[in-house]
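Q: Start with the shorter request: fold the first protein.
A: Done. Sequence, then structure:
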Amino acid sequence: MTKRKWLYVIVFILLSIPVGGYLFLLLLRSASHVNIDKNKFPVSGIDISEHTGKVDFSQLKTLGIDFVYIKATEGATYTDKRFEINSKGVKQSGLPYGFYHFFRFKKSGKEQANNFLNKIRQNPGKLPPVIDVEEWGNQSSGKNTENLRAEIRAFIDIVGKKLGTDIMIYTNPSTYHRLIEGHFDNKIWICAFTDEPDKKINWQFWQHSHYGTIKGVEGNVDLNTFKGTKDNWRSFLRETQ
């Protein structure tokens, strides 16, 4: 039996035992959440999708939320089920917002760029559009690293040209080192559940939790911060709008 199969067996056993399942979920939660120093990182944001559930955008400003990213699309044809509702809600809130696309390795960059543009072109938001590139839950379908980079590049070039803006890349450390590092100079939104991302990664945004709880948000929400002070944040907004 492979190590991966042994891992599945252990997880199944733990989840089959009430106490074991509870402890496993606690470990999973702690591994996907880190509290940050708000004095060092005072700008807070969230990113949401259909998995987040209902969001009362009118409450976010009063709770210290400075920005929101919303999932728009995935792959060549999929649209997030709450895209329209979330888009309308965040626009009415007055919060700075932007949209992201989950990149599927099996589909071409051109197809995915067109899917994303069809949804956000009329309302691209105030923050840089984002391509979400991660190996977790993704299959390369035989494409090698160079092929994948070429498809990512195609997406970035097409969307950037149509919208006249830079595209930010969301990723995690392992995917960053495999596919992004040394090949793209785009701003980086890094997902890292450590005290702080690797200093070798020149990140702009940091997703530090998958298990945030915020009043007015139905489910758990991803928590993010901006690299810089409040003044840096205001300057960033002026540059990107």
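Q: Next, the second protein, separately.
A: Sequence, then structure:
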Amino acid sequence: MGPFDQVTERQQDVYDFIRDKIRSRGYGPTVREIAEHFKIRSPNGVVCHLKALEKKGFITRVANRSRAIQLAGDPLGGRGLPLAGQIAAGVLHEAIEQDEELDLGEMFDANDRDLFALEVSGESMIEDQIADGDYVIVRRQSTARKGQTVVALTDENEATLKRWFPEKNRIRLEPANSSMKPIYVKNAKILGVLVGVVRKVG
């Protein structure tokens, strides 16, 4: 008997959705996201599935916290950080997600659920020693100080790695490359702030 023999097909679908969300972006879905994905009209319907999965030992939930659904045990294998995809350090690119893990050993706390990794694409942050192909370690947060390097998401769902400069009626996303011009946007959402850079040499 496999581990999922004791769950219904819908419960397994919900579990797979939770697992994919955790591995692709580093945290689990909300009840609303699950309801929308499976077209479940009532949040109570989702909660019933979650309670069943929790009772059977497949997930854990933390009361009174959003995004508090986790896989039972360590879904990221203890030492890895979720590799959330590629981030543009150049022109804007559509944000993508992928199902991989970046093993950084003891350099960063892999149990810190607010950390995730992105592979850099482009040369716009080269003067901050962030090159094409490097990995940046990002702390998930929605605010930043002026001048901090952030992962920003525009209204067009395009993500980029730039220095953050809010201005009066716009936001300036400043590259660290003197040959490139800043990007100006009306609105942008901060997904996280840069905390480290990892480069593989040789």
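Q: Describe the second briefly.
A: DSSP finds three helices and twelve strands in the chain. The CA atoms of residues 94 and 157 lie 6 Å apart.
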